[in-house]
Design brief:
By secondary structure, the chain is mainly alpha-helical. 27% of the residues are buried. Helix 6 packs antiparallel against helix 7 and helix 8 crosses helix 9.
């Protein structure tokens, strides 16, 4: 059992010292995830990677009843989910009145999903992701890890205990499902 896994188990059991000792071990990886997610944003963007990491970490281990993790991969999957929720909340607060209207239809590629900007489109993606989660939770988890966690196909395969080929097939399915759902948000699409 690795040091991170031991600390995760202790933090889950309520050991506040373990939660404090865990942060330095996972901080660099969480910061890289956050920085990669925010790298494409304009220079005047108000949300910084450090703030995103700290907020996500507080949601993960700072709650009254911390979640139990099944190892390192599960923790980083949960971190990706926490970052996704924080980013969506940030966009909803900032662009709440600017939804819809002038967006046009466009094809949905890997690059579009992985580098989706923090605009109202992110809120649309979150709404579509919630619908996907209701239909296929595993596909929604894959999208969360890929889009918000910045994980590679190989990392996701290791986290899910499947082959990279299976992850690629499920990724193609999830992209197609989300593409169809996101097209419904554009009023000009017949």
């Amino acid at each position: 059992m690795s040091g991170v896994t031991r600390l995760l188990d202790a933090a889950t059991a309520g050991d506040s010292k373990a939660a404090a000792d865990l942060l330095p071990l996972v901080y660099d990886e969480l910061r890289k995830l956050a920085a990669a997610r925010l790298a494409a944003e304009a220079s005047g963007h108000t949300l910084q990677p450090t703030a995103l990491v700290h907020e996500a970490y507080l949601r993960l281990v700072g709650g009254e009843q911390p979640e139990g993790w099944n190892g390192r991969a599960h923790f980083f999957g949960a971190a990706a989910e926490a970052m996704r929720r924080l980013l969506v909340d940030h966009v909803r607060r900032k662009h709440g009145l600017r939804r819809g209207g002038s967006r046009g239809r466009r094809p949905l590629s890997d690059e579009d999903l992985v580098a989706i900007p923090l605009t109202a489109e992110l809120v649309d993606l979150d709404d579509a992701l919630a619908k996907l989660r209701a239909a296929d939770p595993a596909a929604a988890d894959l999208v969360t890890m890929r889009v918000f966690g910045g994980m590679t196909v190989e990392e996701i395969a290791a986290a899910q205990g499947t082959s990279p080929r299976t992850v690629k097939r499920n990724w193609a399915y999830a992209r197609a499902w989300l593409g169809r759902e996101l097209a419904a948000y554009d009023p000009r699409v017949p």
